[in-house]
Specification:
six-stranded mixed β-sheet; single chain; 10 helices; about 325 residues
């Protein structure tokens, strides 16, 4: 049972009828952040329409490969050896998600990992919408120093017991989500719900498992799901101007290596209402690259067309405050 917090907003008498009827607060720990990484543990807190806990569930998952950064999640090859495969827990996991909005902190990441695991198992996760608690915090205008889970937890007085443990992270998020949900309901805030598109096409390549259980020998493969992004619904407002905000509809291209998985960056841009472009043209609003002197074709064309260029860190800051499109 979750405890009431002094900072929590009391439940409004008239609950918004358009709000979802149930939520699945999810956290997954993984072998890494790349497209071919695997889930090694998962937890789900099921909440009713007003954010009250119904039950919770946790499982380890054998990734059949090197477990990745053990120093972060603490799950070694030995610990995971006897754990079920994802295919073995897929049905139970699905039952926990079925008919509910998936809630997670940086929800696009958790959803992508879950969707890929179900694609590998030749199944689909029964999730149609997700809610990111980062996006909800922005909608509520919470005075957070940053959008890390620990900052959101501290705002509501939630105590973290085991960081990077899926069950405890899910518990912390559930405790922080409940007062956020009540605040949104009391203020008539529209929840930032996004569609979840299951993967229907994919390719995979086995990644060798390191017998030592270490992370140093692991190298990501080139696995990438095959999917088409939805068309940007906003008109292109033109080029980005230094010192100003990004605006929905702007065409953004990426070049070179990024510290964040490229697909995750592209998804964040899409969710912010930007158009992710695969090439540079005179219509491109912005190029994101960490190496503007690399001489790649995109960088060369950006110079030719006078396309503005920013690095990944600056782009991440710009994504936090994207100006709405002129509709």
């Amino acid at each position: 049972m979750l405890e009431d917090r002094a900072t929590a907003v009391s439940s409004p008498t008239q609950w918004p009828t358009a709000y979802p009827k149930g939520y699945a607060v999810v956290d997954v720990e993984t072998t890494g952040l790349a497209r071919d990484d695997r889930i090694i543990s998962a937890a789900v807190y099921r909440l009713d329409e007003r954010g009250e806990v119904e039950d919770h569930w946790y499982t380890l998952v054998n990734p059949e490969r090197d477990p990745g950064p053990v120093w972060i999640h603490g799950l070694t090859s030995e610990v995971l050896e006897g754990a079920p495969l994802f295919a073995d827990i897929a049905e139970e996991f699905a039952a926990r998600l079925d008919g509910r909005v998936l809630v997670a902190h940086n929800a696009v990441f958790d959803w992508q990992m879950i969707a890929r695991e179900y694609a590998r198992a030749q199944r689909e996760a029964p999730v149609r919408q997700r809610l990111c608690t980062i996006a909800l915090s922005k909608e509520l205008g919470l005075p957070l120093p940053n959008f890390k889970l620990e900052s959101l937890a501290a705002h509501y007085g939630v105590v973290q017991q085991r960081a990077h443990h899926a069950l405890d992270d899910a518990r912390v998020l559930a405790e922080a989500f409940r007062p956020s949900l009540r605040a949104a309901a009391a203020g008539g805030v529209r929840l930032p719900l996004l569609e979840c598109r299951p993967l229907t096409e994919w390719s995979d390549r086995p990644v060798p498992r390191q017998p030592s259980g270490g992370y140093g020998g692991y190298r990501p493969s080139s696995w990438r799901p095959s999917r088409k992004r939805p068309a940007c619904p906003h008109p292109n407002p033109g080029r980005y101007e230094d010192g100003k905000r990004l605006k929905q509809g702007m065409r953004v291209a990426f070049s070179g290596d990024t510290s964040t998985d490229r697909e995750l960056l592209e998804d964040r841009a899409t969710e912010a209402g930007l158009h992710v472009a695969s090439s540079i043209s005179r219509l491109t609003s912005l190029l994101v690259t960490n190496d503007p002197d690399s001489g790649t074709s995109k960088v060369a064309k950006a110079r030719q067309f006078g396309t503005p260029v920013v690095d990944e860190a600056a782009f991440g800051q710009l994504l936090r405050d994207v100006e709405p499109a002129d509709e």
